[in-house]
Specification:
The chain has 369 residues and is an alpha/beta fold. Helix content is 28%, strand content 20%. It contains nine helices and 13 strands. It has a six-stranded mixed sheet with strand order 10-9-8-11-13-12. A five-stranded antiparallel sheet has the order 3-2-1-4-5, with no helix packed on it. A hairpin with a 6-residue loop joins strand 4 and strand 5. The longest helix is centred in the C-terminal third of the chain and has 31 residues, at 332-362. The relative contact order is 0.11.
Length: 369
């Protein structure tokens, strides 16, 4: 993974690749990556961006479809390729399959959720600048889920932004403020936006994140209004929507596959891209770089003042973290949440080591990380 979040202000260029590809998000940094990556290719290759994945097939754009054109599009096999929507790829000389994937600048990765691959990574979206973490303001705040999402978002290399949808369903401004503050308390330093996909509240500000051909990924549970937000941002019915249950505001999965969706140029200037993802019920961690440290920066700051370097923040004397809990400055549930995530990550690392050992015993070639 190269670098971090947005690359606003980077002048788009196409150098050694085809004119027009910059509209898909190609810029000077990709020129450098391409020069290093294309030297090993034996055929005249060109990069394209993965716009959709469907059960072993990838739709690759070399130039995007428009109202006047179908664009330059290929549909190829991706069996055996670690590929995600948003990736820049090279198709084989015969045009049948993805031959290579360019190194990712960022990637939103979680643990695979299906049996048999629990120690495997599942990349939800690649080469993104911002991750919109969607929660419904009309539902009770879920601090623990947001903490998990923030760990994944910080580790992705993109910039997390919390979007609270369904403002039109909450008429009580006092309750809205309380729910907003509840989520803000576990996301220090992160931008928040309260919006309505039905009324259009706050949507222009969300579109502005994609200005300059940047890419946004949306992540949220089923029923938080993701498809409604996508349709409102794009300006058409790009995604089918369903009603939610009255009791808990949960809905069905209406987005069944990740896809790259164009955002209109107006009213914020240069158009950008949005990656919509299916609703994620379980937010399972993958190996964290500094995601936990950044998502729980308030607790890690306190740790610096603990008397002992190996403090477990339980009964040790001189523990600054426990002192903050006792003084009411730190919610003990947040501390326990951090400990659970640290333990979950450690268990995953043990599973990964066990899998690699098993593969070595069977003579399998070790996968590249």
């Amino acid at each position: 993974m190269l670098g971090g979040g947005g690359h606003a202000g980077t002048k788009a260029t196409v150098g050694p690749v085809e004119v027009g590809i910059e509209s898909l998000g190609w810029d000077v940094t990709w020129d450098e990556i391409w020069r290093e990556s294309s030297a090993d290719l034996e055929h005249k290759a060109r990069p394209g961006r993965v716009a959709r994945i469907d059960r072993g097939w990838s739709t690759v754009w070399y130039s995007p479809p428009t109202n006047d054109s179908t664009g330059d599009v290929a549909r190829v096999r991706n069996i055996g390729a670690d590929v995600a929507v948003g990736d820049w790829v090279v198709v084989s000389a015969d045009g049948e399959r993805i031959e290579s994937v360019l190194p990712r600048r960022s990637a939103f990765v979680r643990r695979a959720s299906f049996e048999g691959q629990r120690a495997e990574a599942h990349t939800i979206a690649a080469n993104i600048d911002f991750v919109f973490l969607l929660h419904a303001i009309a539902s009770p705040p879920n601090q623990r889920r947001l903490e998990r999402e923030l760990v994944l978002a910080f580790d992705s290399g993109a910039v997390p932004v919390v979007v609270l949808s369904k403002r039109d369903l909450l008429d009580d401004p006092v309750e809205e403020a309380a729910r907003l503050e509840s989520l803000r308390s576990v996301a220090p330093g992160v931008e928040f936006h309260v919006v309505s996909g039905v009324r259009g509240d706050g949507l222009d500000r969300l579109r502005s994140y994609a200005a300059g051909c940047r890419t946004i990924a949306l992540l949220g549970a089923s029923g938080v209004g993701k498809s409604t937000i996508v349709n409102a941002l794009v300006g058409n019915s790009a995604q089918r929507t369903e009603s939610v249950r009255e009791g808990d505001q949960r809905g069905r999965h209406t987005t069944t596959a990740s896809s790259l969706v164009a955002l209109p140029a107006e009213p914020v200037g240069s158009a950008g891209w949005l990656i919509d993802t299916p609703g994620v019920r379980a937010v399972s961690l993958w190996s964290s770089g500094h995601g936990i440290e950044r998502a729980f920066a308030d607790i890690f700051d306190l740790m610096d003042d603990c008397r002992f370097r190996d403090c477990k923040h339980e009964e040790e004397p001189g523990c600054a973290v426990r002192s903050a809990v006792d003084a009411g400055a730190l919610d003990p549930r947040r501390l326990e949440s951090m400990k659970r995530l640290v333990a979950e990550e450690a268990a995953l690392e043990d599973e990964q080591k066990a899998r690699l050992k098993a593969e070595d015993r069977r003579g399998f070639r070790r996968r590249k990380s």
